[in-house]
């Protein structure tokens, strides 16, 4: 059976994809900069091969991709370093082609679209006209990959995701609320809380990616994976309150507050330009993907919140006892 490589494997999406491959008994390679992080996440899985890489070294990239048929790309950068995305893609793509990789799957975002122009829900043919720096960098990343597909260098596809949440997902809009729901204290959130929004439950992503690997018709195109339906942050906070019996104190940062916080915190500073997604919602249409691969399991928000809260309890027993 051919081997799959997960570049940027140690993150939440990478671990979801690995779990899906593991459930099929399929061997896979995990690639990252830190051997320690990879061994912590995957060291007990006999199906996982741990490989480190240096993306600045063409030889290292090629070695990490050697013997691989399908490369799944989830390489992250600091939120204030999005200028690195296109260059990292170029280096990885060149190394993958040199190593003879046949298929390349990029896990993408909605950033390249910019503001919604066609009304919701948004399909894959929506204009890509990003008005933000981060959107332009993500678009450039996608363009490099899909141009390589069009020129015959490699077969490529992009799977775009909305905001995500789930057990252990700290980079979620809902993470601080989940912590406060379990441990008490104040939930720091980014508003507006009552605008329509959607979230994909991270454990649902891996099985979809695993199906794309074995779907040749997926390549050469871009696909959406939508969340479990339209909701709001406030509705999900209310569900946390219902499940824990705890009324949450909320501290909500709007655009002005993000600017002020950004004077001291580079992550908050970089959230300012993306705040439009909180005021001008973008909801995804994934009917094309479902026609391609069949019905997709989407965990209902009630169950996703239950599992997310359970993960907080498991990782913070001392705080729970104190609460």
Automatic annotation (TrEMBL):
Residue intervals of the NAD-dependent epimerase/dehydratase domain: 6-219
Record's keyword annotation contains Oxidoreductase: yes
The record's listing under Pfam families reads: Epimerase (PF01370)
Which of UniProt's keywords are assigned here? Answer: NADP, Oxidoreductase
Superkingdom, natural source: Bacteria
Signal peptide range in chain numbering: none
Question: InterPro entries of this UniProt entry?
Answer: Epimerase_deHydtase (IPR001509), NAD(P)-bd_dom_sf (IPR036291), NmrA/Isoflavone_reductase-like (IPR051609)
Q: Name one GO molecular function term.
A: oxidoreductase activity
Protein's recorded name: NAD-dependent epimerase/dehydratase
